[in-house]
Input
Amino acid sequence: MDIVHVPVLVKEVLEFFKNIEGVFLDCTVGLGGHAEAILSKIPNSVVVGLDVDEEALDLAKKRLERFVLAGRVKLFKSSYVDAVEVLKNLGFDHVDAILMDLGVSSMQLEKAERGFSFNRDGPLDMRMDKRQSLTAYEIVNSWDEEDLSRIIFEYGEEKRYARRIARFIVRNRPIQTTKQLVEVLARAIPNKHSRKRHFATRVFQAIRIAVNFELENLKKFLAQAPELLRPGGRIAIVSFHSLEDRIVKEFFRNEPKLKQLTKRPITPSESEIALNPRARSAKLRVAERV
Ligand code: SAM
Output
């Protein structure tokens, strides 16, 4: 079965991009959902798409084949942190628009062997970039209790039980699989069934953010983004948890080279959430280069 990633807030993103032509940098091209929408709805557009996930790029290549053949899309296995270099090699000093769609793709979640999902039994992996050596297994089985507790508290925003969860993890080592981790969390977390989200959500989020250096990478890219945009160019960022959203919000608010176009973040409609539950926590913020 082909895995389809339904892009989130795609109409809303296009609304902000509709009067832009030229080079679009898709920092997180994933399975090419947003890129496909841009290429089909914005005639004079070229997309440079980056992703660190080789499997995602293969699927994007298939989905975007007609645009690849027409020379309108170029895909690279690269972190968006290195976007400036990739663009320089293509002869671009500036781009007209930037899109970041943070978070995990449906493909990453659905493939048990990637280890991202608490609903599927797989190895503790969670790497978006398989070239890197740090995995979820290493964090779960070798970080000390203090560091585990810190990431669960900070990245998982699990304010109440971070210490207790870290203690349970350390006591139950070795933990080999996502299912075993969920079983440990089930014992560690009191009142787990009264939670709005699955009780493992926060801890899985924390480990994933740590494995992939998600917040550090976002900050590193944002610092380069205003210079990369031509005046009048726009940057749109879809985030999926409050830590990312806070970083984007503060950056857009305090960066003199950018004007915020979204005072409040744009969120998906009820009907989008009904069709695509992954959209539930998405927030879109957009800014323009002055
Ligand atoms: N917009 C895409 C679509 O419509 O198909 C989905 C993007 S998905 C939510 C996020 C993607 O970002 C994943 O494929 C992930 O591998 C990628 N990613 C994560 N960190 C990255 C980084 N530092 N550089 C480039 N891509 C990254």
The first helix runs from residue 10 to 17. The longest strand covers residues 229-239. The mean pLDDT is 96. The chain has two domains: 10-107+214-289, 130-211.
